[in-house]
Structures are given as structure tokens and as C-alpha cells.
Amino acid sequence: MAATKLEGVRKILVVEDDPFLSDIYNTKLKQTGFDVDLAMTGEECLQKLATNKYDLMVLDIVLPQVDGWEILSRVREMRQQKTNPNVEGLKIIILSNLGQKEEIKKGLDLGANGFMIKAHFTPSEVAQEINKALGATG
Ligand SMILES: [Mg+2]
């Protein structure tokens, strides 16, 4: 049974509008053993969060239309108003080219569990950080 096979496999949503980067993270995270889903826009991300439950979301900030800040605000609102059980235990790691002190603070204040600057981490290191973030609560 396929469902049994996937038991215990962590589901990761990668929100990244750059197809090249998206592909790299997808490949690396699958190699690491994660079940990976991709969203190329903020809209797509919100649609996926409405219908799927993920263990962790890797979130870009600069996205067309609905950006990462907006997504963080919406997720926080869903949590406060308890309108989407899918986001209850969702871990969020921002993976962005932004990285000014104020931006990092803003991300964490909006509910992200971590903030990684793209240029500072290889895809393998991103996978390690995801493992760490998920391991923290089992
Ligand atoms: Mg982007």
C-alpha cells in the first residue's frame, strides 16, 4: 500500500518562483528523503496550504503578486482564527536573498521558525537545516 510506504516521510512545500532554484531544492530535498511539493507563486502556495498538510514550508519572500510577507501574515491569521488546521503545526523557514537585520526580525516576528539567506547556504545545508527544524519537535 502506497500510504504505508509514505508513513513517517516528512512533507515539504518549497515556495520558490525561480525555476532553476526550485528544481535544485526539489532534487536535493528528495534525495534527502523528503516528500516534496512545489509552489511557484504566492497564490499557488496559499492554494496548496488550503488543501494539503505539510510538515515544513521553505518560503521565498520576493514572489510575484502575493509575496512571502503576505503569506506569513495570512498563515498567522489562519492560526489566530483557527480557520485552517493544515497550518497548525507547520514549520516555516524563510529562504531569501533578503537578509537585512530588520527583514530577519520581521520574518521571525511574523511567525517563521528560521531565516536563511540563499547565498549563504548550499542546497545540502538547507536540507540539514530542515532536518534540524523538524527534529526539534520530533
Ligand atoms: Mg523569488
Question: Could you provide a short overview of the structure?
Answer:
The chain is α/β, with parallel strands linked by helices and 138 residues long.
Inertia-based shape: globular
What CATH architecture label applies?
3-Layer(aba) Sandwich
Q: What is the CATH top level name? A: Alpha Beta
Tell how many strands the DSSP assignment holds.
5
Strand content: 15-25%
What structural class should be given to the helix and strand makeup?
A: alpha/beta
- Binned, the helix content reads 40-55%
CATH superfamily annotation: Response regulator
Please tell me how large the radius of gyration is. Answer: 14 Å
Order of helices and strands: HEHEHEHEHEH
Structure in words:
With 138 residues, the protein is an alpha/beta fold. The chain has a single domain (11-135), classed as Response regulator (Rossmann fold, 3-Layer(aba) Sandwich). Helices cover 46% and strands 17% of the residues. The chain is built from six helices and five strands, in the order H-E-H-E-H-E-H-E-H-E-H. The protein has helices spanning 2-5, 19-32, 42-51, 68-81, 101-109, 123-135; strands spanning 11-15, 35-39, 56-59, 91-96, 114-117. The chain has a five-stranded parallel beta sheet with strand order 2-1-3-4-5, sandwiched between helices. Helix 2 packs across helix 6 (123-135). It is globular and about 35 Å long. It starts with a helix and ends with a helix. The model has no long low-confidence stretch (mean pLDDT 93). Bound molecules: magnesium ion (MG).
